[in-house]
């Protein structure tokens, strides 16, 4: 009789884990190294069920001051569930030479508190799986640094914006509010 509860708990653990994996959209089923840390960011654990803005960044770009606007966007909507993920990239030859310098630009120069990864590839064959799926869903590859994707609570890209679009642009804000209103 005691074997049955143990078996039931084992099955629950097995199938409960599969149910959790099924709830996490494929877009987020990845881990990325966190900037200024030995830890990784489990995208499912951190972002599943939350609206998300994903942006490829660079420390030495004319658009780098957008960090300030991205931080303001994050602070404005974080209590409603919005997350922002910054993905530094040297694909356009404007990222710092070291993770330490990238971290200084983000955290010291611009006071970033949203999630940042270590530099990654976001274009071409070497693009990380997260970006490959962002590109597949939106039909748009980042053409430059600070390209923005807005993802709803189901892990679907609902809008994308060029580097020229500032974080306080009304169209970007409208997309963020649409993502916030989406159901998990």
UniProtKB/TrEMBL annotation:
The keyword Signal applies. It holds the Pfam family GSHPx. The active site is at 61. PROSITE patterns: GLUTATHIONE_PEROXID_1, GLUTATHIONE_PEROXID_3, THIOREDOXIN_2. GO terms for molecular function: peroxidase activity. GO terms for biological process: cellular response to oxidative stress. Keywords: Oxidoreductase, Peroxidase, Signal. Residues 13-181 form the Thioredoxin domain. The keyword Signal applies. Residues 1-21 form the signal peptide. Belongs to the glutathione peroxidase family. This is Glutathione peroxidase. The lineage of its organism: Bacteria, Pseudomonadati, Pseudomonadota, Gammaproteobacteria, Pseudomonadales.
């Amino acid at each position: 009789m005691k074997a049955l509860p143990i078996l039931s708990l084992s099955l629950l653990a097995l199938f409960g884990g599969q149910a959790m994996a099924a709830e996490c959209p494929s877009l987020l089923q990845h881990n990325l190294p966190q900037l200024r840390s030995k830890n990784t960011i489990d995208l499912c654990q951190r972002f599943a069920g939350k609206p998300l803005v994903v942006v490829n960044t660079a420390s030495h770009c004319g658009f780098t001051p957008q960090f300030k606007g991205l931080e303001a966007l994050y602070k404005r909507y974080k209590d409603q569930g919005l997350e922002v993920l910054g993905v530094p990239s040297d694909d356009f030859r404007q990222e710092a030479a070291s993770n330490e310098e990238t971290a200084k630009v983000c955290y010291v120069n611009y006071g970033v508190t949203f999630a940042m990864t270590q530099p990654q590839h976001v274009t071409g064959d070497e693009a990380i799986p997260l970006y490959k799926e962002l590109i597949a869903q939106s039909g748009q590859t980042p053409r430059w640094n600070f390209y923005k994707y807005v993802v709803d609570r189901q892990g679907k890209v609902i809008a994308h914006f060029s580097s020229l679009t500032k974080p306080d642009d009304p169209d970007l804000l409208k997309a963020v509010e649409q993502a916030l209103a989406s159901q998990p």
